[in-house]
Design brief:
about 15% strand, 8-stranded mixed beta sheet, about 425 residues, alpha/beta, Aspartate Aminotransferase, domain 1, 3-stranded antiparallel beta sheet
Length: about 425
Amino acid sequence: MSLSLNRPDRRDGLRRLFRHPAEMLSSRAIRTQAPPISWLMQQAVEVEGLISLAAGLVDRASLPCARVQALVNEILADPEAGRDALQYGTTPGHHALRDLVRARYCAGTAYDDADQVVVCTGSQQGLELLGEAIYDPGDIVIVEDPTYFVYTGVLESFGCDIRGVASDADGMQVDQLALLLDQLRASGELARLKAIYVVSYHQNPGGWTLSLERRQALMALVHGLPEQVLLIEDAAYYELAFEPDQRPPLMATMDASGDRVASFLTASKPFAPGLKTGFMVVPPRLVAAVVHLKGNHDFGSNNFAHHILARALATGVFDEQVADLRAVYQRKAQILSEALHRELPAGSAQWAESSGGLYLWLQVPGVDTGPDGALFKACLEQRVLYVPGCYAFAPEPGRSKPSDRLRLTYGVASDEELVEGARRFAAALLSLGV
């Protein structure tokens, strides 16, 4: 007998099967909400003709099809190399890749050890694994305001108490961080502090890079804190600096103790997100815990992707792709910024020119940019999408969030779409009488 989903008894049975009463779910599952970007990405797919300046996806035309094809051909042309790549890998990742990551990012520092490198299914998995290793409900985590809002969702799912510290063009304001730390000491809460999280290069969403002076001050503060406090450096946009010679060093390389920083990098933004590979560099005291937890997840990430990336790094193909992408994104950042300057009324919005990464962070004084605000609705009518800035501020009770900020990305839209997207955004703003 065939199954008909249209029969009332079948529909009722399916409703019962897929119902999730609260008593079935763990406390963490109940705390976990869908990230706002999921809905924004869905709109980009479902709304015909919509130009998304919201989702931080990469430039489609520059994806390295020919380069990856050549690498795969080289691997599979060698039967032994091909079998190694197509076999299961190890939980921490392909050793040759871990060693290349060590040499590229940590050589000559206290983190110069391939055993401290764990290869993950994107840096997001690494952040999740580290959270499993160190967070308990009620632990305090300090973040920048604004910050990468997907990570605040991760922190909320762990039941963390998230505190925000104001940031500006040089990154987290370390003097304000020091004041918050003094408040935690005075209130007896410092023992609950587990981590300070910063997006250290071309920040998502702000676009700024944490300055060398503030990196030094931040490192000094961390070393004055109880040893359970970890500095978490999300360096996802490290490779996408338009002027790489001018970027400050990774925080891990500045930690002479080798024990207080966990740095996260990725191959998704600077090479190919479809390979879904990231790297975490952690202190020795955390390696075993992270690897054991990762074993519960997957026994090891995509081994074939690891072999492709190892060959890309070893042969210089990775560097070739990074150089091409820097030029692509520098051009696209300029196109979007120039179009906004051309289309928007003078003084209606402010932003800093991009020095790398994928984002522009706008302030639109006097305009509510939130998802229920008039500008967001007007932009949907104009079929252009941005990320409301309110999502990016720490979900800290009693802490006010600016209501006039928003994030634009120039990553995935074509040159023509960037120009048209700026025109539509300006039209939406003008429709409000700005």
